[in-house]
Specification:
The complex is a heterodimer of chains A (about 230) and B (about 230). Chain A has about 230 residues and is an alpha+beta fold. Chain A has five helices and eleven strands; from the N terminus they run αβαβββββββαβββαα. Chain A folds into two domains: about 90 residues, no CATH class; about 130 residues, Nucleoside Triphosphate Pyrophosphohydrolase (Alpha-Beta Complex). In chain B, about 40% of the residues are buried. The chains are: A alpha+beta (about 230), B alpha+beta (about 230).
Amino acid sequence: MSGFQEYLSFAKLHPDLFVNPPTGGFTIILDEDEIREIEAFMAQKLSMRGLPASLAQVGIVYEDQYGRILRDAVHFPDGSPGTYIRFVSRAVGVPGVVILPMYQGNILLLRRFHHATRRWHLEIPAGAGSAQLTGEEAARQLLLRDIEAITGSLVPLGRLDVGPGMAADGAELFYARLASYGQGNRREGITEVLCLDLPAFERMIRENEINDGFTIAAYLHAKLQGLFEQTEQ
Amino acid sequence: MSALENYFAFVREHPWMFANPPGSGFTILLTEEEIEEVQSQVREQLQKRGLPDAWAEVGVVYQDNYLLILRDAVRFPDSSTGTYLRVSSQIERGAGAATLPYYQGHFLLLRHFRHATRDWQLEIPRGFGSRGLSGMENARKELQEEIGATASRILPLGVVRPDTGMTSDVVELFFADIASYTGVEELEGVATIVSLTLADYERHIADGRITDVFTIAAYTRAKLRGLF
């Protein structure tokens, strides 16, 4: 099957990813003739900027075991044609999980090295979801893997989009009351588990020492739900 | 130029992306011999799962005018080796900027359609970085271009990283006191300006009508700094 046919088959298999709103959005074009016209138009635009015409090619333009990059042909709201890229993870529609872990009234924060940034970050546990598990099950597994934690109760905090310009799946946020926890998982880049009271944690967000978007969003959701005011079980 | 030569050229041009700080645990392997060894080991693992050999290839594995994907060979903290993927959309442009606009007791948001989620999102104005412009200049430009606003005061709120596990991208956050805004005629029907009180803004976050990480992070920082 050619790359382009594979793209059309992918579109048929995942119609939700190719929804066209009645007005105002970016309309995805799936008619082959129209796509070819848009590719030719974009190739010309790119070559005027000294860029390779191959960047106009519509389809699945990158693929590996984690996901795919799609380059779609679209009509923008003003009617002009163009291409638009997006990342779709291999487990389509499975969001990641992010957990704000509480232990005896304090927040647990990880010092963790990430390959993507080549630096350490202060952040709460976060990881991929799984098509075989519910969000809550994935959250419990992640806490066990990352900090050897036994989780008591879990409270869903809502959903987060992590840069909706590009990625579609986002993350589910949780607040967890832990029965116990242990060492940080070195294999996951975790070098320290910090136990902080709420004022110290808030100061670190305020002063830019915590700049992980997941951590900040989970904190605000928990605060708005009044979870920090409740007595720990 | 071979794929590996291309990768080595990228490494020479962007050495900060290949830092191996002591104790980090995820050591990037940069000799040809080590890389080839990791590639052949990963290829074997992929073959067992019936997956393509190409996914073991170390290098700049995808690049267009917006996005770059690197697949590095690394040694993990338990001394095992493998490949590790990372994404950047800011190599050429630098950090983006997102600004929380505050006007007469209300916050100004944009409701617009996002291609990636195929849905509308409520977000504060945000844009790509722009070489030659500071974050604050970029914030002023975005306010003008997206909501037709001029600011009497702009305060930096630090940075936010949207997904440290996947991308090196970083966005500078700002708070802006808006003197006036007119909307932007060309964006009519594309992006609608929504004006929310503080209580409404928090309700929209709590009930999931606002899910954008930059919109939530800028609000949180501004609130913790007592700016409203």
